Amino acid sequence: MELAMIGLGRMGANMAQRLVQGGHVVSGYDPGEAAREAAAANGIAPKSSLAELVASLPAPRVLWMMVPAGAIVDDTLAQLLPLLAPGDVVIDGGNSMYKDTQRRAAMMASHQLGYVDCGTSGGIWGLAEGYSLMVGGEAALVQRLRPLFETLAPAADKGWGHVGPVGAGHFTKMVHNGIEYGMMQAYAEGFSILQHKQEFALDLPQVADIWRDGSVVRSWLLDRTTDALKDNPTLEGIAPYVEDSGEGRWTVAEAIELDVPAPVITLSLMERLRSRDKDSFADKLLAAMRNAFGGHRITRQ
Amino acid sequence: MELAMIGLGRMGANMAQRLVQGGHVVSGYDPGEAAREAAAANGIAPKSSLAELVASLPAPRVLWMMVPAGAIVDDTLAQLLPLLAPGDVVIDGGNSMYKDTQRRAAMMASHQLGYVDCGTSGGIWGLAEGYSLMVGGEAALVQRLRPLFETLAPAADKGWGHVGPVGAGHFTKMVHNGIEYGMMQAYAEGFSILQHKQEFALDLPQVADIWRDGSVVRSWLLDRTTDALKDNPTLEGIAPYVEDSGEGRWTVAEAIELDVPAPVITLSLMERLRSRDKDSFADKLLAAMRNAFGGHRITRQ
Amino acid sequence: MELAMIGLGRMGANMAQRLVQGGHVVSGYDPGEAAREAAAANGIAPKSSLAELVASLPAPRVLWMMVPAGAIVDDTLAQLLPLLAPGDVVIDGGNSMYKDTQRRAAMMASHQLGYVDCGTSGGIWGLAEGYSLMVGGEAALVQRLRPLFETLAPAADKGWGHVGPVGAGHFTKMVHNGIEYGMMQAYAEGFSILQHKQEFALDLPQVADIWRDGSVVRSWLLDRTTDALKDNPTLEGIAPYVEDSGEGRWTVAEAIELDVPAPVITLSLMERLRSRDKDSFADKLLAAMRNAFGGHRITRQ
Amino acid sequence: MELAMIGLGRMGANMAQRLVQGGHVVSGYDPGEAAREAAAANGIAPKSSLAELVASLPAPRVLWMMVPAGAIVDDTLAQLLPLLAPGDVVIDGGNSMYKDTQRRAAMMASHQLGYVDCGTSGGIWGLAEGYSLMVGGEAALVQRLRPLFETLAPAADKGWGHVGPVGAGHFTKMVHNGIEYGMMQAYAEGFSILQHKQEFALDLPQVADIWRDGSVVRSWLLDRTTDALKDNPTLEGIAPYVEDSGEGRWTVAEAIELDVPAPVITLSLMERLRSRDKDSFADKLLAAMRNAFGGHRITRQ
C-alpha cells in the first residue's frame, strides 16, 4: 500500500522502515530535519510539510500518526483537516487516551474522514521482531488497512487483531501497559531481594538467564532484564528514578471508574512516583510524628 | 504496692514516676548510673544490681520489666531466676513478641514464678496522661497487680483491661502498633498531598488544627501531628527516614499466618522500609528495563 | 444571621438545627415534604420552592447548599441564578469536587454573586458536637459568614478556618476523607487480626474500649468503632460490603496528578471496591492460570 | 546416570520420566501404589519401600526427593539416614524453605552425606519443555550431578545453573515464585479491567492471543493465560478462590527481614488471602463504622 507516516521519532521511523521492508510505499513527515534525513536513508520519502505529505498521496489517502499523545495529536488533526478529502483515513498508532480517540473519531466522522486507533507495543525491538497491534475502528476501514497490520505485526496472522470499535485499540493498549507496570515491578522487587541477600552472593545475570528457559516467569521482559543485568550487573551509574508516561495513570483511573480493584497495577505506578520523590514530605512527617508522640530520635539532614 | 522497676529508660522511668505519684513504693534498677540517679530524683529508690533490687523487696515480690524487646528480656530473666522465690511475679511491660512471652511464661511457671504481660501504649505522654494497658496472664495474678494498672492507666477504670491469657496482652499491643502504622501513614500521605497542592498555599498547621475539633479524623495522633507541624511547618532539617521497631513486622507476619489480609498495615511497613532505601536497586532496574525495551532515557547518578 | 438552607437531608437538617440553636434565623427548602415538615418541627421555616425561599430572605442573601455532590449542585445553581441579586452569596457545604467548585465560583462571580465552599466533617454527630469546617473563598465573604461558622463549629474559635481561595475548602475536605479511608482501613484490618486469633478469644469491644484512653491509636473514629462493636460484637447480619462516595477516588486521582505517592489511601479505596466485587474475575483467572501451568486444582462454584 | 526418585506425584513422576527419556536409569518410590504403577509404565523401576530403593542403587548413591515441603522432607531424611552410606547424595528438588535446607544440609554433612537443593520451575509443562533449575550446593557435588541437570533442563546449557552454596537454590526459587505471584496478579487485574469494560465487548482470548506476539507483556504465563481463556472465556464455574503454597509468604517474610520493600509481591499474596476471605470481618467493620459515624446505610446479609 501507499501511506504516509507522520512523526519519525523512535517509534514512527522504525515502523515506517518495517513497512518499507514489507513492500509498502511510505512517505514521511517530521518537524525535525534530522529525523527526515534519517528516514530518507531507510527508503522513506521525506516531505517537508504536512501539506506536501498529503498532496503526494493518492486518494483515498492513508496517514499513520506516531506522535506523542495529547495536544500534538489534536494539533496534527487540525492541520490535516483542511488538507484531507472524504474517504481518507488517519490511524493513530500512538499512546492516546481512548476517550480522546473517541472524541477525535467523532470529529473526523463529521467530515467523512475515517479514524482508526492502533495500540502499538514492541518498543525499539518492533522493527526487527514486529509489533503487537490492537486495532479499533470500523470493520471496513480495518479491512482496508489490513496489509499494513500484517506487515507491522510479527507475522501476517499473529500479533495483531481488530479488537473493537474505535477507542478499543487504545483502551486495550492502555491496559497492556498497566500490566507491563505490574510485571516490571514484580521483577524489580524480586531481583532486589536477590541482590540484598549477601549471604548467597548471587550472580543476578546468571539467575535471570537461568529463568529464561523453562521457568514459569520466563518472558520477553525477562529477556530484556537479562540484557540489562548482563550489560551492567550492579546497575552502576543508573539513578533510582523511574518515569511513567500516562498509560499507567489512565489504567488506574479506569479501574476505579469501573469499580475494578487493581491494587498491584496501581501500586506499581505509585512506586514510580515514589522513586522520584527524593525528599518525601510524608516520610519527614512520619519521623516528626514518631518523635512527637514517642520521643523517637529524628534523623537530621 | 511495693514493686521494682527493671529498666529506667524513657518508658520505665516515666512509669515508675507515675507509680510513685500514685502512692506506690518503687525501687528501680538500670545498668546506667545516670538513669538511676534521674530515677532517684523522682522518688524511685535506686539499686545498683538486680540482686540488690530483688533482695530489697518483700515477698511475694513484684518486678516490672521495661527493657528492650528480645535477648535482653531473656538475659534479665536468666539473671533473676536464681534470685526469685516461688510466688514472685514478673511483669513484662515492654514490646516483646507474644510467642516469646508464652515461652517465657512457661519457663517461669516451671519455677512457680508468675509472669504477666502488659502491652503498654502512650509514649512519652503516658506519665502525664496515663497509659493504655493490655494485660495478659492468669486472673489471680492480674487481680493481685490491679492497683498498679489502676495507677498507670488514665483512670482506675479506664484504659486498661485483662484481655486474656499470658501473651494476649503483647499480642493485642502488637496489633495496636500495626494499626498505628496505618493511621500514621494515612495522615502522612494526606498532609503530603495538601503540601504539594501549591495552588492553594495551604497552611498545614492550621488545617491540622481545624481537624482537631469536630472532624471525623480527629485523634490523639492528629494532636501530636499538629504539635509537630506547628513546631516546624516545613519539616525543615528532618530526614525522610522512618524507623520501625518490630511490632509492625510481627503484625504482618501474624496476619499472613492467620490468612487475614492486612494490606494497608503491611504497606505502611513497606513504606518505612522504602524510606530507608535511598539507592533502590528495584528502581534502578526499572529504569534499566525501560531503557532496554523501549529506549527510554536513563537518569544518571 | 438570617439564612436559607437548601437541602434538608441528614446533614442539612442537622446543620440548620444547630444554626437555629445558635440563634440564627433559618429558612429551608427540600423537595421532600417530609424533610420540610421535620425541619419545621426544629424551628426552621420551611419554604415550598427555591423561589419562595429566595424571596423570603433579606438582601444581601445568604444561602447554604447541602445537596448531593454532582449534577444536583449545578441544577440548583441554575435554578437560583435568575432568583438572586448581585451581592448574594451561596455556600456549598457539601462534598463537591473542588474543580467543580472553582468552575461554579467563576460562573457565579460573572453574575456578581459570591460563592464560598465549606468542607464539612462530623457526620451525624455534628449536630451535638459541632462540625469541622474547612472554608474556601474570598476573605471578605468568609468574614461576612463568620457567625455561621462559629455556630456550626464545636466552638467559636475551634474546628473551623478559612484555608484558602474558593475550592481550597473542598480540596482540604477531600484529602480529609482520603485520610479517613486509610484510618478506617487500618482499624478494620487490626480488629480483623484480633478477631481471627481464636487462641486468645479476645473481647473486641473490650480491647477497643481499653484503647480509647491513653493509647496512641485513640481517636474519635475509635470511639465510634467501640460503639459499633459494643452494639454488635460479632457484626452479625452486616454484609461485608463497603460503599465509597467520591472523595476517596478524587484524592487518589489528585495524588497521582500531583505525583505524590499515596499508597495507603489508594489501597483503602481499592479494598472498598474489592468488598463489592463478589465474583472477582481476577481471582477466577488466577485460579485458572494456576491450573493451566501447574495443574493446581480449581475450586468449582 | 543411575538415580532414585523419591515422590512420584505430578512433579516427581514427570521429572523421572524426562530423566528416563534422557537415558538415565531411574528407580522410584512413592507411598501410593497407583503412583508407582504409573511410573513403571513410563520406564521407572518402582520400589515398594525406601529401604528397597536405597538397596537397589549403586554406591555412591544419588537420590532425588520430590515431596511436599515441610515435615515430609524431614521424615524422609530421617528414614533415609540409617540406609545411606558416606558419599551418597540427596537432592531436594521440591519447594523447601531455604533455611530448612541449610539446617538439613548441615545434618547430612555431619554424616558425610551430600545434600544439594534444586529449585525447580516449569510446572506440568516441564516434562515436555524442560525445567528451569536453580541449584545450590558444593561445586563438586553439583558437578557430579551435572548430567541430571542437563537432561532435566530445556537444553544442556540452558535453563539451569549452580547459583551458590546449599540453600541458594531454594532461596532463588522462592523469589522466583514471589515474582510469579506479582506477574499473575498483574495479568489478572488487567484482564479484569478489560472484562468489565462492557462498552467495548472485548474478546479476551483474542486480546491475550494478540499480545503473545510482539508485545512487551508476552510471556510464557501469558501463553498459559491464553490457553485458559480460550478454554473457558467467561471462566464459568471457576470459583474466585486462589490458593497459595508457602513460597509467596516466605518471600514476603524474607523481604521484610532484609529491609527490602516488595509491595507488589506482598500485595499479590494479600490478594490471594483476600480471595479466600468470603465473609470479611474487616469489611463488615468498615460498614458498621460508616453507619456509626455517618449514618450510612448497612447492607444486610
UniProtKB/TrEMBL annotation, chains A, B, C, D:
Q: Which domain of life is it from?
A: Bacteria
Look up the record and name the pathway of this protein. Carbohydrate degradation; pentose phosphate pathway
Q: Which UniProt keywords apply?
A: Gluconate utilization, Oxidoreductase
What the entry lists under Pfam families is as follows:
6PGD (PF00393), NAD_binding_2 (PF03446)
Coiled coil spans: none
**What region holds the 6-phosphogluconate dehydrogenase C-terminal domain?**
169-301
Say if the entry is tagged with keyword Cell membrane. Answer: no
Molecular-function GO term, any one? NADP binding
Q: Which Gene3D superfamilies match?
A: N-(1-d-carboxylethyl)-l-norvaline Dehydrogenase, domain 2, NAD(P)-binding Rossmann-like Domain
The biological process GO terms on file are:
D-gluconate metabolic process; organic acid catabolic process; pentose-phosphate shunt
Cited InterPro entries:
3-OH-isobutyrate_DH-rel_CS (IPR002204), 6-PGluconate_DH-like_C_sf (IPR008927), 6DGDH_YqeC (IPR004849), 6PGD_dom2 (IPR013328), 6PGDH_C (IPR006114), 6PGDH_NADP-bd (IPR006115), NAD(P)-bd_dom_sf (IPR036291), Pgluconate_DH (IPR006183)
Q: Family membership, please give it.
A: Belongs to the 6-phosphogluconate dehydrogenase family.
Which protein are we looking at?
Answer: 6-phosphogluconate dehydrogenase
